[in-house]
Design goal:
- By secondary structure, the chain is α/β, with parallel strands linked by helices.
- α2 links the parallel β1 and β2.
- The chain is 43% helix and 16% strand.
- The model has no long low-confidence stretch (mean pLDDT 93).
- The two termini are 28 Å apart.
- A four-stranded mixed β-sheet has the order 1-2-3-4.
């Protein structure tokens, strides 16, 4: 429900000058300040590997449970500027993507 309303949520945070941090990169792309969360691309790759093992005959119960290992940090500098915030260079250097 929230991902479908991301533009509205980001607009609400912006309207009230709330420097919000989100879990999905789509929020930062929609105008949110920062997102930090699991990379869906990496998670879908893991899913494909599991599906391949099952199609080759592995029993799902025998496969180990895995947790995400890849996380993305996305910073929207346009939003930071609109909020009057300065993002430190050390944080920008760690970002996987910077939206300018």
């Amino acid at each position: 429900m929230f991902i479908n309303r991301r533009e509205q949520l980001v607009a609400l945070a912006s309207r009230h000058a709330v420097p919000a941090i989100y879990t999905l990169r789509e929020y930062a792309a929609a105008g949110g300040l920062i997102s930090y969360g699991t990379s869906f691309t990496a998670a879908y790759r893991q899913l494909g590997t599991y599906a391949g093992k099952i199609l080759k005959g592995a029993k799902p119960a025998d496969l180990p449970v895995q947790q995400p290992t890849t996380f993305e940090l996305v910073i929207n500098l346009k939003t930071a500027k609109a909020l009057g915030l300065t993002v430190p260079p050390s944080i920008l250097a760690r970002a996987d993507e910077v939206i300018e």
